[in-house]
Structure formats: C-alpha cells, structure tokens
Amino acid sequence: MNKKLKVALVQAQIPDNTEQSKHLLEQTIRQAAAQNVKLILLPELHNGAYFCQQQALNEFDRAESIPGPTTDWLSALAKQLNIVIVGSVFERRTAGIYHNTGVVLDSDGSLAGIYRKMHIPDDPGFNEKFYFTPGDIGFKPINTSVGRLGLLVCWDQWYPEAARLMALAGAEILLYPTAIGWDPADDQAEKDRQLDAWQTVQRGHAVANGLPVLSCNRTGFEASPEGALNHTGGIDFWGGSFITGPQGEFLAKAEVQPELLIAELDLAHSENVRRIWPFFRDRRIDEYGDLTKRFID
C-alpha cells in the first residue's frame, strides 16, 4: 500500500485582532497549498490573543456559533485550495455553555466534524475552566478525504487515555492544536524540562498507538492583561511544533520563531509498525477496569 500525505502546521504569533490573525493565517495556508500540502493544522484559539490568562465576562464576546464566521472562512479556503483544514473555535453553544472546539473543514468545503476539548486546565495564566464546558462528544475520529483524524486539543495531549481511545476508534493520525508556554519567571532549566516533557509525552502517544502525531503550538510572548488574577507577567508560548511518524521519530520540528512546518507522512508505515509492535493485540483489556477510577486506594 502506498499512501503518502503531505501535511503542514502553522506555528504563528497570533495578534489580538481577528481580521489580522485571519489575514496572517490565510497567507500561510495558501503558501502550504502551493506546496501541495493536503492537510493543515492551525494553533489553538487562533482568532486572537490567548484570553484565558484572565477571568473576565467580556471575553465571552469572542465566542461564536458553529457553523459561524470562522468555519465559513475556513470552509471557503478549504474548497478553493482543495485542502483539509483543522482549525479552532471558541464555541458558543448556547448562553452559559461555551466550548474550546476543534473544527475540521474537508477539501470540498464541508464541515467534516468537530471535537470539543475534554480535559480543561485551571492553572495560573490558564483559567480555562472559567470559560469552557468540558466536551461531551467523546473521542471520535473525524472522517475526511485524507483519512480519519483523531483531533484532540492542548491539555488533552498529556493524557494517554485520550490518544488510545482515538486510536481504538480507528484514527489514522493524531492532531493537537495547542497553546502552551512558559511562565517568564521560570529559569532555563525548568523551561527545558517542560518543553522536553511536552514533546516526549506526545511522541509516546505515537509509539504506543503506531500513529503519526501532529502538534501545532502558538509562539511569542503574550502579556498578562492588566488586572488578571495570576502571578505571571504573561505567557511565553514556546513554539516547538512538530510532526512525528508512528515510532515517535521526528519528521519535522520547529524552534521558537513563526514557521510553516511541512512533512510527508507515509500512512502505510503505521500498518508495518503495528505488525512488528502489536501493542493492540497484547493489551490485557480484561485487567484494565480500574482505569475508570479516580485513584486506587
């Protein structure tokens, strides 16, 4: 089987202006399409600043419906360029229910599916529980013209259960739109440990499931809004976006600067890897019941 797929990540420093961010991202999407990319992943909450640094009611004004302005914009681009686009929306489901939602626009412009972020962090500078209701769709891959996409979002990337469930449901690629960075007060050794851990855990998902992983982060410093209730001066998004194959091997890796990251996936390789490392065959599903417990006392 020969199944090659050219993919791209847009690692960008996102301005706090929706039209400016759309213009920036659209230019980069067009660059990718001109290089025969067929699947492109954007960072988490790419329509403006990472607003979760503070708890402020007016930030809910950023939310929009699905379908809505962002999916309409991405749909038109996907159809025009014949490319699958994976984006991110602050979704207003109804008054009082908002989600951090990944959206997939197929190459014909149709909305192939959505994924609502399941794991919601609540840490200094990352006040996401104030804004987002946990997802209720579950871990279901999204069928597209380029394959079945296991779309997860940021904090989800630390949980092996999420990646495993996507893989068990038939995902062919794991994708993580992300907004993660350092507290500027951290020393360099702590920064290095955090970045290494972030890349390592996701590479582990690739290995454990025999699937390629695409992880696309924001980059650049975003100051903490005045009056924000956290100890940080802002978040220094570390970039570091990457693409791995099914053995966790780096196919492409970004540094800190904005970058269009491109690689070619060999989806047939996943089949071969699973033959030599048959983790699914040897799983002791009869002994895993305690995984549904919070803690084993």
Task: Please sum up the structure shown.
This protein has 297 residues and is of the alpha/beta class. It contains seven helices and 15 strands.
Describe this structure as you would to a colleague.
The structure is a single chain. The protein is of the alpha/beta class and 297 residues long. It has one domain: Nitrilase/N-carbamoyl-D-aminoacid amidohydrolase. It has helices at 18-34, 69-81, 128-131, 160-168, 188-209, 267-276, 279-282; strands at 4-11, 39-41, 84-94, 97-105, 111-116, 142-144, 147-151, 173-178, 181-182, 213-217, 219-223, 234-238, 242-244, 250-253, 259-266. The longest helix has 22 residues, at 188-209. The mean pLDDT is 95. InterPro entries: Aliph_Amidase/BUP, C-N_Hydrolase, C-N_Hydrolase_sf.
What coarse outline follows from CA principal-axis ratios? globular
Note the gap between the termini.
Answer: 48 Å
Q: C-alpha Rg, in Å?
A: 18 Å
CATH topology: Nitrilase/N-carbamoyl-D-aminoacid amidohydrolase
Mean pLDDT: 95
CATH architecture label: 4-Layer Sandwich
Given as residue ranges, the uncertain stretches (5+ residues, pLDDT < 50) are none
Class of secondary structure makeup: alpha/beta
Number of domains: 1
Q: Please give the number of β-strands.
A: 15
Number of helical runs? 7
- The fourth-level CATH homologous superfamily is Carbon-nitrogen hydrolase
CATH top level?
Alpha Beta
Please state how the strands of the largest beta sheet are arranged side by side: 5-4-3-2-1-15
State the helicity in percent bands.
25-40%
Order of helices and strands: EHEHEEEHEEHEEHEEEEEEHH
